[in-house]
Design a protein that fits this description.
This protein is mostly beta strands. It has a single domain (4-344), classed as 6 Propeller (Neuraminidase). The protein contains 1 helix and 31 strands. A hairpin with a 2-residue loop joins strand 13 and strand 14 (159-165).
Length: 346
């Protein structure tokens, strides 16, 4: 069974307890991306209801189709390779594809409603399935030196634990993260994760901070994004349903004035790519890049249109997913003429 790490939905709420200090570096634009090709699906016959995209070890990419409860793979040139999955609870079937991550050549798919991880081979065959314990989850990452186990962060008070889960779905290990990293409320910790070299990176919907995780599963560095957005507060309010005999309800939500930050994160061996919303009219078009080892800012890409998800491919090209009108996948070559003498960024 593939070793993987799964994150509990809304509970990986890592929050820096100290205020941000110093001035954020000004955003530096990299060269305009070069479009290699596009896959458009106006009638929905090819891509369906696509929600996410992930680069594959073979140089291409896979997409998650929520409408058909399926995973579809494409080559590096955009040719369809295989399709796996359908709606259901049986082997190779899905009910809620929450996240995908590669572990070696196998793609591991988190199905939240079926409460399991399904491993799919590079040819589209289901190779194994692992049950998960109770608790909402929405992303998976490779195991960090924990053997053949599945890990997921568990929230307890202001501490975060990485839990190891056996093949049978029982929790059998907990590794605490450094006490300097804590969180205040699960609502503000909505986050996105990606493998980053031998470790991982966590980006946040409501904050520009990035958490870099080492190859042993411990936090290696916490960095502020180029456009600094602090974690927001939450608002609690009472709502009167106006129905006789029904008591008032209490609702807690993220401060409605809060600015959204990351919309997606992906990484190569050398760089982290964050799809950024931010405060500007370019929200959803900005891809900020950072060094994968320490998180130093390395420049930004401005896409010609708003996208819903991004994926870095094996050769350093960037794949983007648009969903506003109908699904469109575009593959770009990114050139960083400023730092690398016209070398392709990756």
């Amino acid at each position: 069974m593939v070793p993987l790490l799964a994150r509990a939905l809304g509970t990986l709420c890592i929050l820096a307890v100290e205020p941000m200090e110093g001035q954020a570096p000004s955003r530096q634009w990299l060269a305009e991306p070069i479009l290699e090709y596009a896959i458009e699906d106006e009638d929905g016959s090819l891509l369906g209801d696509v929600r996410s995209i992930k680069g594959s070890p073979g140089g291409g990419f896979v997409i998650a189709d929520w409408g058909d409860f399926a995973i579809q793979a494409f080559s590096s040139s955009g040719e369809p390779l295989w399709r796996a999955g359908r709606e259901g609870r049986g082997p190779g079937e899905f009910l809620q594809i929450m996240h995908m991550e590669y572990d070696g050549d196998e793609l591991v798919v988190l199905d939240n409603k079926n409460r399991r991880l399904t491993a799919i081979s590079e040819t589209g065959q289901v190779t194994s399935s692992r049950p998960l314990p109770e608790g909402e989850m929405n992303s998976v990452l490779p195991t960090f030196r924990a053997g053949e186990r599945t890990l997921r962060p568990h929230t307890g008070g202001r501490d975060t634990l990485w839990e190891s889960v056996s093949d049978a779905g029982t929790v059998n290990l907990a590794v605490p993260m450094p006490s300097a990293i804590s969180f205040e409320h699960d609502l503000v910790g909505s986050s996105y994760t990606s493998r980053a070299g031998a470790g991982a990176v966590v980006a946040f919907r409501w904050s520009s901070q990035l958490i870099l995780v080492n190859d042993d599963g411990q936090v290696g560095n916490v960095v502020d994004g180029v456009e600094r957005i602090a974690f927001p507060g939450v608002k609690t309010q009472e709502m009167d349903p106006g129905i006789e005999g029904v008591v008032k309800m209490v609702s807690t939500r993220v401060d409605p004035r809060a600015t959204e930050a990351a919309a997606s994160v992906t990484a190569s061996g050398r760089r982290i790519f964050v799809l950024f919303r931010g405060r500007t009219e370019n929200a959803g078009r900005i891809v900020d890049t950072y060094g994968a080892s320490r998180g130093e800012y390395r420049g930004s890409i401005l896409l010609p249109s708003k996208v819903a998800d991004i994926a870095i491919l094996e050769d350093g090209r960037l794949a983007t997913l648009e969903t506003d009108l109908f699904p469109v996948i575009r593959v770009w070559t990114i050139v960083d003429a400023r730092d690398f003498g016209d070398r392709v960024l990756g």
